[in-house]
Design brief:
Blueprint (H helix, E strand, L loop, with lengths): L5 E11 L3 H10 L6 E5 L1 E3 L2 E3 L8 E8 L1 H15 L5 E10 L7
Antiparallel strand pairs: 1-5, 1-6, 2-5, 3-4
């Protein structure tokens, strides 16, 4: 028995928790149907982000959708947030089941 998977694109965004509500509104406005947000900790060019208090908290947003929508969403994030907020984002191809969930 083989899996009937389809290729979609995973957009991962790691950024400041302080802008979560603004980002969620943007994602809704851009037509993103679903996403996962979780707390994130780590170290990068802005130093250690422990997440112990609100000002140092980070979030990780994961969205799976078709490549064109992933790229347009990433371009929006780049144009709107990269210059003023600690934000990194990357794309990966992923294989999914139930591909209709990620349209």
């Amino acid at each position: 028995m083989s899996l009937n998977t389809q290729i979609r694109t995973l957009l991962t965004v790691i950024t400041e928790a302080a802008i979560e509500q603004v980002l969620v509104r943007d994602l809704d406005r851009l037509g993103v149907r679903g996403y996962t947000i979780s707390d994130a900790r780590g170290r990068g060019s802005h130093g250690v982000r422990e997440g112990a208090w609100t000002k140092s908290a980070n979030i990780r947003i994961e969205i799976v959708f078709p490549r064109a929508m992933a790229e347009s969403t990433l371009l929006h994030l780049q144009a709107t947030y990269f210059a003023n907020y600690a934000m990194v984002a990357f794309l990966q191809d992923v294989e999914v089941l139930r591909s209709d969930k990620f349209e």
